Amino acid sequence: MNTMQVLKAMANETRMEILTLLLRHNYCVRALANELDFSEATISQHLKILREAGLLIGEKRGYFMHYDVEKTALIELAREIEALAGIEREGCHPKLRSDCPVELKPSCHKKGTCDEETIEFCHGKEADRE
Amino acid sequence: MNTMQVLKAMANETRMEILTLLLRHNYCVRALANELDFSEATISQHLKILREAGLLIGEKRGYFMHYDVEKTALIELAREIEALAGIEREGCHPKLRSDCPVELKPSCHKKGTCDEETIEFCHGKEADRE
DNA sequence: TATTTAATTAGGTCAATACTTAATTAAATG
DNA sequence: CATTTAATTAAGTATTGACCTAATTAAATA
Question: How confident is the model at residue B17 (pLDDT cuts 50, 70, 90)?
């Protein structure tokens, strides 16, 4: 799953409404257009974005296209976001950051506690700083 | 929580990178700008969007602003997305939709199975249809 | 209390996104 | 196999979003 693509697909009011409508009811494209008061072309374009993100699968029934929400994609997204919340602060342990110039940074960002090299690491070269 | 606002805040590569950086390390604004190779102004604007969505809280330490990720917001978002996945299809039960014109729609969208009123409900007025 | 300094906001540019209508496509049906 | 019809794609426009530099703000410190 491309998390970014899924988030972008969901980060739009109309597409979220399409998702919730399709979760509850089996609308065709025109019915969605009627419900949401947009042109069929607009809805079709939104459906494409949702489909390409893996949030919908389409099926043709008679003349009509019907879309189903791929619930596993939603669950996977929820897991990914939970995983983010599970990330722990590393503090400033140089062991975990091979590019960290200091051995220990006990009270950084109190003026005077960091040497020039540390300040450069955290805030850039002196020339760019003022 | 405003789910839409949180999704919009997260649906951007730079902001997601900011989030993951801040989950792991206590960067100030300039350090984030250095890591991500954007101007401080740009990072500040992204931080504002994340803050207003409730994904960050800021704290001033000495001269520096430090932001922490509001993990509860992430967990809440994950729950909301899971809740979406939990929504069940209503089929087409007129009892659940007071505006549904039919008593039962057993095999709708097979030509001829819906009367004119049903078709109008699903697909709009005849005049708008051709 | 004047100065220093990081962060933010203002103002402007360019690219991406969300719409529209019109044209096209592709599948179902007579 | 020609016709019908829903959906999609194309083309164009207007809005929104992401970036920049420059100006401003507000807090810490001398």
Answer: very high
